[in-house]
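User: Show me a protein chain along with its predicted structure.
Assistant: Here is one chain, sequence first, then structure tokens.
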Amino acid sequence: MSDNTPVRVLLVDDQPLLRMGFRLILEGEDDLCIVGEASNGAEAVRHVWELAPDVVLMDVRMPVLDGIEATRAIAASGSDAKIIILTTFDLDEYAFAALRAGASAFLLKDVAPAELVSAVRVVASGDAVVAPRVTQRLLETYVRGAGGMDPAGTGGAAGQHAGADEGGQQAGSPARPARDPLLEDLTPRENEMLGAMAEGLSNAEIAHRYFLSEATVKTHVRRILTKLHLRDRVQAVVYAYETGLVVPSNADY
């Protein structure tokens, strides 16, 4: 996407007033463009195909087809659209399931306008960072509480990538699964990069920690995603939790 091309955004929510509010906020930015709206997941899937948005703001609970199923369908279609899930609760099991299905981020519906705009830009750039504490809590709560099982029955990130049937984590596996054979393809440096990504560090922060250039970090990230057959760095973070590379803390939330 060219720096001069506005980010194309699709709004998906069954509440017209919410769509209107998000439209008013985003249309006030010169680099953002609303290309369409949908009131359910089925419409969203169709509009992604027809309108080719860069970012989809997706409500998680809708009639006809919910946000989880719509997210999975969009991710499976090969679309480059990045999906931001909208939810009412910060520890929403459906938001967690949507991340596992292919979403790149999630936001609370009462998000501040500036945070909404920033999230759309960051996700569109492809450098989405799972840094907010609330996102880490979401991952830790459901990976720890469900033993790596999906609360909405969507199939985990580790099961989404190719090769899971041959050796990845299987449904019903314990909270501390066997090491995924695909991890053997990672170099020691790439293992470090994956761990840093799971901490929620940005490319710039990873570069600073390991005394590398951001371009080198981006290359490592691309190679990690390719080797593990993952959609984006958010899927890599979910994968790291599910496969036991990151152990959820014992802190009470």
